[in-house]
Amino acid sequence: MSNPAPKNIAKKKDGMVDEDPADMHIPDNYIEYSLRNSKALPAVTWGNWWTELNYLSVAILTLSPCIAVYGALTTKLRWETAAFAIFYYFFTGLGPYLAVA
């Protein structure tokens, strides 16, 4: 007993197998296809905004700057630290871009 060949596989005359691509049913405009076939998300309102938050990202993006501000306000600034901060600011490439803006 031989198994029937799947519908998307066709044998050529030279014995090679010609397969259709797996994404053949997806049109060229992939964004339009994705929007049409994806489930709609619920609307964000004042009553449910907190359920849409990624709490790990919120913690990382708020705790780190809060700790830095606390440290800056409670630690005496030394001239060596200030000089290093200015040097590091320009050395990392942030200085030229932020100074123009």
What's the shape?
elongated
Count the E strands.
2
Distance between the termini: 74 Å
Helix count equals: 4
Major beta sheet summary: 2 strands, antiparallel
What is the averaged pLDDT score? 79
C-alpha Rg (nearest Å): 29 Å
Strand order of the largest sheet: 1-2
- What oligomeric arrangement do these chains adopt? single chain
Helix content: 40-55%
SSE sequence, one letter per element: EEHHHH
Which class best fits the helix and strand makeup?
mainly alpha
Give the low-pLDDT segments.
none
The proportion of strand residues reads 5-15%
Report what the structure shows.
This protein has 101 residues and is mostly helical. The protein has a domain of 48 residues. A two-stranded antiparallel sheet has the order 1-2. Strand 1 and strand 2 form a beta hairpin. The chain is elongated, with a radius of gyration of 29 Å. The mean pLDDT is 79.
